[in-house]
């Protein structure tokens, strides 16, 4: 365990760390939405407004609440999808986060559709929910927004191709792709 904490202290934003022999861990010390300054401002305001719900105390460790973890995971997926592409492994992380959210009491879960719409990620999230149902067979009660087949099939096609098709992304996400190319 000492080696793990020593390595965690030495890394900087978004670096990949070998915390355990079989697990890669990606650390983020800032919350951001790619290079889009407008979405970054909205995201930071939202996190500041909801800072009380952001962290939970679990024994000696403070960790993100389940709801905040899912929002941040979707934000990270979105920008990785736009910037460099995502893999099924990253979508599998989202699958387990959704299953975890489904297991929590409804009172402790935020209104995801409203939040994701405010962050400009509702359409992407609807596509991810379709992928969760179609590929991972996630039950409907675990979905946080209504799935969209057209958006989901686009995401799945991009993931399965294994490469980022800038022309396809430009058709679906023109503004965010333009900020990424800056």
What does this structure look like?
With 182 residues, the protein is mostly helical. It has helices spanning 2-10, 37-49, 51-54, 66-83, 88-102, 112-118, 122-134, 149-161, 166-172, 174-181, and strands spanning 16-20, 23-26, 55-58, 61-64. The longest helix is centred in the middle third of the chain and has 18 residues, at 66-83. It has a two-stranded antiparallel ribbon. It has a two-stranded antiparallel ribbon with strand order 3-4. Helix 7 packs across helix 8 (149-161) and helix 9 packs across helix 10 (174-181). The protein is 59% helix and 9% strand.
Q: What share of residues is helical? A: 55-70%
> How many distinct helices?
10
Give the amount of beta strand, in percent. Answer: 5-15%
Tell how many strands the DSSP assignment holds: 4
User: Which structural class is indicated by helix and strand composition?
Assistant: mainly alpha
Short note summarizing the structure:
This protein is mainly alpha-helical and 182 residues long. It contains ten helices and four strands.
Question: What is the topological layout?
Answer:
Layout: H1 2-10, E1 16-20, E2 23-26, H2 37-49, H3 51-54, E3 55-58, E4 61-64, H4 66-83, H5 88-102, H6 112-118, H7 122-134, H8 149-161, H9 166-172, H10 174-181
Antiparallel strand pairs: 1-2, 3-4
Helix pairs in contact: 4-5, 7-8, 9-10
């Amino acid at each position: 365990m000492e080696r793990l904490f020593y390595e965690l202290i030495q890394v900087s934003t978004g670096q990949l760390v070998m915390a355990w022999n079989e697990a890669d861990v990606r650390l983020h010390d800032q919350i951001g939405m790619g290079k889009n300054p407008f979405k970054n401002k909205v995201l930071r305001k939202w996190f500041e407004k909801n800072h009380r719900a952001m962290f939970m105390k679990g024994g000696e460790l403070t960790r993100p609440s389940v709801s905040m973890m899912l929002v941040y995971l979707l934000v990270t997926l979105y920008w990785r999808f736009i910037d460099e592409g995502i893999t099924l492994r990253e979508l599998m992380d989202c699958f387990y986060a959704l299953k975890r959210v489904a297991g929590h009491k409804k009172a402790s879960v935020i209104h995801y559709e409203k939040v994701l719409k405010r962050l400009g990620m509702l359409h992407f999230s609807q596509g991810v929910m379709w992928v969760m149902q179609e590929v991972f067979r996630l039950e409907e009660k675990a979905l946080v927004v209504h799935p969209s087949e057209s958006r989901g099939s686009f995401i799945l096609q991009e993931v399965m191709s294994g490469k980022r098709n800038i022309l396809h992304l430009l058709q679906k996400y023109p503004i965010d792709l333009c900020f990424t190319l800056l």
